[in-house]
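Instructor's aside before we start: the two examples that follow are unrelated to each other. I chose them only because their records fit on one page, so don't look for a connection. First example below.
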Amino acid sequence: MKKKTVCIIGLGYIGLPTAALLSYNGYSVFGVDNNTKIVSTINKGKTHIAEPDLSKIVKSSVLKGKLKAFTKIQPCDVYIICVPTPFHENHKIPLPNIDYVLSATRSIAPLLKFGDLVILESTSPVGTTEKVRKELIRLNSDIKGVHIAYCPERVLPGKIMKEIITNDRIVGGITPDSAKVVADFYRGFVKGKIFETDQKTAEMCKLTENSFRDLNIAFANELSMICDKQRIDIWQLINLANKHPRVNILQPGIGVGGHCIAVDPWFIISQDKKNSKLIHTARKVNNHKTEWVINKIKKTLKKKFLKKNKKIKIACLGLTFKADVDDLRESRALRVARILLEEGFDVSGVDPNVGTNVGFPILNLSKAIKWADIICVLVKHHQFLIPKTKKQLIKLEALDFCGVLK
């Protein structure tokens, strides 16, 4: 049986890996992105995202002619929307912006035929898939036989190519028949279980998963601030508390970044502020932790350099939103570094995953250790966990906000 042709709209952190996986599995894949540089890069068999195994698969698929990139939608049998869903600016509570989703929908509408699949993978507020359906009807009244569904990604940056295959998936269809047809499509390349439901439940499921993690991290972050005041080792405390068979506290950090856990809870809050008080509080706690870290650094500097009239040099170890990735989206570490820079400190970053200038110099670790007056460990990259490096940082009395030195 001939495999369906697939059009992936949006070639970012989810779209490109999805395109790579499908093309690797024998599908003819047409990737679409409005960024001409991204399109050109992919058509050369290269990638603009650092992710294990991704570049190898993209190169192979492009050479075989299974993956091609374009700036315009290509006629296919399956359309998968993986575009960004940012926030509208200047709102007290961030409001989700689904303009890119609707724009992609409008591009698809004139090309649809009987039996086609339209799948939304972009993280979206509840009701977005229904808006996609209504927009398609408005622009192409004859969508009978077109299967529309929502299927959110569940992958971890740094492990995307593995988890996109092995993780279970939720498929929420506009109709039960659409859920079944789209689920069968995913069963063709996903080894994890595929669960069928309606579109609103699938949309809420994605938001619930990341809100749950945000709550759990907020608890750890709140504990870390309490323990700092009480002079209790938070890392030892959590380790001991987790010996309880029904306790599993996550690790504290400098807040929550990335384009999932730091974002998805707002999609729930924006739609029902009255009944999402706990979720809203977790967001406030995790955002406050970043400001607490900045104040902690400043207090330490004031105490250490009280009598020295000099511009203090700060080396920030780790700039990405989480360990061992190159992703700077919503990075709290980058926020810490930039605010310290704005407040007059001399700031440099140390991050083996970041090669570009981010508004201040990026140094290697050995140079930063010689250069800096104080070192702040913000992200738990594995390079900082090497015993020799840890000994150096302990000797220098580095401020450790992520448990590297424990």
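Example two begins here.
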Amino acid sequence: MLKKIWIAMLCLSACGAAAAEEPAAAGDAEQAAAAAVQFEASLRFQQGEVTLPNGVAVLQVPAGFRYIGAEDARRVLEDAWGNPEGDGTLGMLLPSDVSVVGEGGWGVIITYEEDGHVSDADADSIDYDALLADMRERVAAENGARRDAGYAAIELVGWAAKPHYDKTARKLYWAKELKFGDAPDHTLNYNIRVLGRKGVLVLNAVSDMQQLGKVEQDMRQVLAFTNFTAGNRYEDFDASIDKAAAYGLGALVAGGVAAKTGLLAKLLALLVAFKKFIVLGVLAVAGVVGKVLLGRKDQSA
């Protein structure tokens, strides 16, 4: 489940393969590590006040985090973590103390859904235990289609953090524990929704369950330093000119809006457990093609 570095190698000769294999492996590993360092160095990190590309929200990024823009976020998601193409990402937040391509690396994907002003009138009436049961049934029912598409089945194990809504800040957060196929390690999906005038700011983080304590601590900070800009805040809603959303807080947690907009696909719901850094290179290693240098390939991948 953790990232692994792979090298695509070209076989130039079939002679002397056995003798060349061991010395080549050390050099190839060094090249792979250098490529990982070079990739991370190419990212344009930002801290301090960052206004998101669409101008609706601003982040006060502290020293413990780094922000990368939409294009760099695409490179991380697709090139570094091996996920399918997506669109609509406004950037990512990455912890400063972990390499984005290293073991334990994780990040917060930022998007914005302008489906209208979401009412929080149902905040006190949602039965989150019943909602979880419904979500489990729906995830299980969709596993047939996932298998047919060549992906691992998903099991919604339960809440890693039960949904909580801050009525004053208009911010909602929760976390789910997921199991992908036969993977022994479970996956953490931590969610933040910030309600605004015309839509919802969506922040999703994915990591291993073992990192729950660290991720939860960091995401509390993200909650605090993420806010809509003046004119786009929840209280700026004008019922005479602004559209109201057709769903409430319960649908945000259940994923109804995600299913409608295709957000789950964009946010790696199927492949997130198998993110890996792929280095494409051509190396003069005789008799060896596609050798795994650092670790074994996940059977489920």
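The chain is about 30% helix and 30% strand.
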